From TrEMBL:
Enzyme Commission number, as recorded: 6.3.5.-
The protein's name in its UniProt record: Aspartyl/glutamyl-tRNA(Asn/Gln) amidotransferase subunit B
Lineage top rank: taxon: Bacteria
InterPro entries named among the record's database cross-references: Asn/Gln-tRNA_amidoTrfase_suB/E (IPR017959), Asn/Gln-tRNA_Trfase_suB/E_cat (IPR006075), Asn/Gln_amidotransferase (IPR018027), GatB (IPR004413)
Pfam families given in the database record: GatB_N, GatB_Yqey
Residue ranges occupied by any Asn/Gln amidotransferase domain in the UniProt entry: 350-497
Organism: Pseudonocardia abyssalis
Entry keyword set: ATP-binding, Ligase, Nucleotide-binding, Protein biosynthesis
Record keyword Endoplasmic reticulum present: no
Record note on quaternary structure: Heterotrimer of A, B and C subunits.
Length: 498
């Protein structure tokens, strides 16, 4: 067995990578693909099942219309052609989590074919990924292996099966081979899955939660000698469930394939499992060919034949797609390419847009989310959108600052209070007594006290050196714990020294 990996730069020097990505998207329909069972995540095991999704004798499937509509909308958004007629097929194989011993899928008659997705890379350049097909199928159940160190079946004492997931609608989106990526292959893979996830989210057909398995990527990779044009043997790393892991899986497999080839061995066509803790892969099973699955047309389902009118109706429901929306926001907010990319990478774009929609100026909304709230998210080691503050609450804080009821220092204290669960911004202002003090009475007293404490500074102001008032303003702000209206304080200082 080949142990050492080849340095990535060395791989690029001598080999060309060939990528292929298969992404499974779990649709957010209320019921399963071929029966009326609910699809809610996290239910008690085996409580969302029926004779149809368990494959019991005598049960018959019925296609979920909403799932078909979602599939067509995904195909249209990916610039695919929608097939006017197609059948489901039985993909025959036995796994314990597949109760029917076959998966109802689409084989040679997918719902959508020949599309593309343009993805933006880290430097702002655009890379086109060609789409081979998008087809409908059903998900499997879930196995839980108990007693082992890794959660895998190897070493487990026993396994549990949950069929709640069996039959949930899936769309599998398959790219054509992706040539020409070279050293950017890991980045292209991550960018593609990111763009696809954003597209799915915009369409509203899935919650697109990779951490819950709503989107899972299979990474196909092979190497060929540099500029040879010869296709190598591919491996398929299954069910990679984070964007970072997609990138790391590609990088690891490139180095592993090169090590195998350098050792004079043959790359095995197999499935592999990604190891999150080591960013490596390990062997799964020998990869079957399509002939091994003995596909045949599903006899219990009628063909899918979407009319041209129906397809056009669905096309009209497509929302503003993510890349068009970003271009619009970039223009509206006067952002450079780099600034826009930073907002996207920080996960701040949606939050800023929602804050603007709640009434805040774009510049203020951007400043709060990118600066102060990003610091808070980093300190808590959570994503920006996981902070316990809403865009509407941020907009309210901005409004309080604009009206003069808060200054920036007090506003940060208000945000801290919201993040600590003390209530809404107004409730935090009230409970902490954080409103700006602008009444002349207490401010005049504080100004007089500060002038008396610094007579030399007071004399400078009286002599016309107004810039010296800054020291007095600072003293008043300190005395009022930052709650004084600084503008009014300065005005009072000048008045008192005139």
């Amino acid at each position: 067995m080949t142990a050492a990996l080849v340095d990535f730069d060395d791989v690029i020097e001598r080999f060309d990578p060939m990528l292929g990505l298969e992404v499974h998207v779990e649709l957010n329909t209320n019921t399963k693909m071929f029966c009326g069972c609910p699809t809610g995540f996290g239910a008690e095991p085996n409580t969302q099942v029926c004779p149809t999704c368990l494959g019991l004798p005598g049960s018959l499937p019925v296609v979920n219309r909403t799932a078909v509509e979602s599939a067509i909308r995904i195909g249209l958004a990916l610039n695919c052609s929608i097939a006017p007629w197609g059948r489901f097929a039985r993909k025959n194989y036995f796994y314990p989590d597949q109760p029917k011993n076959f998966q109802t899928s689409q084989y040679d008659e997918p719902i959508a074919v020949d599309g593309h997705l343009d993805v933006t890379l880290d430097d702002g350049s655009v890379f086109r990924v060609e789409i081979e097909r998008a087809h409908m199928e059903e998900d499997t159940g879930k196995s839980l292996h108990v007693g082992g160190a890794t959660g895998r079946i190897h070493g487990a004492e026993y396994s549990l099966l949950d069929y709640n997931r069996a039959g949930i609608p899936l769309i599998e989106i398959v790219t054509k081979m992706i040539p020409g990526t070279r050293e950017r292959a890991p980045e292209v893979a991550r960018a593609y899955v990111t763009a696809l996830r954003d597209l799915i989210t915009a369409l509203g057909v899935s919650d697109a939660r990779m951490d819950q398995g709503s989107i899972r990527a299979d990474v196909n990779l092979s190497l060929s000698p540099r500029d040879s044009g010869i296709l190598g043997t591919r491996s398929e790393t299954k069910n990679v469930n984070s964007l970072r892991s997609v990138e790391r899986a590609v990088r690891y497999e490139m180095s592993r394939h090169a090590a195998v080839l350098d050792a004079g061995e043959e790359v095995v066509q197999e499935t592999r499992h990604f190891q999150e803790d080591t960013a490596s892969t390990r062997s799964g099973r020998i990869k079957e060919t399509s002939e091994d699955y003995r596909y045949f047309p599903e006899p219990d389902l009628v063909p899918i034949a979407p009319s041209a009118e129906w397809v056009e109706e669905l096309r009209a429901t497509l929302p503003e797609l993510p890349w068009a929306r970003r271009a619009r926001l970039q223009a509206d907010w006067s952002l450079s390419d780099e600034e826009l990319r930073d907002l996207v990478n920080a996960g701040a774009l949606d939050l800023i847009e929602a804050t603007v929609a709640a009434g805040a100026p774009a510049g203020d909304a951007r400043s709060w989310w990118v600066a102060y709230l990003t610091q808070k998210a980093n300190a808590r080691e959570v994503a920006l959108d996981a902070l316990p503050i809403t865009p509407a609450q941020v907009a309210r804080v901005i409004e309080l600052v604009a009206s003069g009821e808060l200054n920036n220092k007090l506003a940060r204290q208000v945000v801290d209070g919201v993040l600590d669960g003390e209530g809404t911004p107004d409730e935090v202002v009230s409970s902490r007594g954080l409103a700006v003090v602008s009444d002349d009475g207490p401010l005049i007293a504080a100004v007089d006290e500060a002038l008396a404490a610094q007579p030399d500074v007071a004399q400078k102001i009286r002599d016309g050196k107004v810039q010296a008032a800054g020291a007095i303003v600072g003293a008043v702000m300190k005395a009022t714990k930052g709650q004084a209206d600084a503008k009014r304080v300065r005005e009072l200082i000048v008045e008192r020294c005139s």
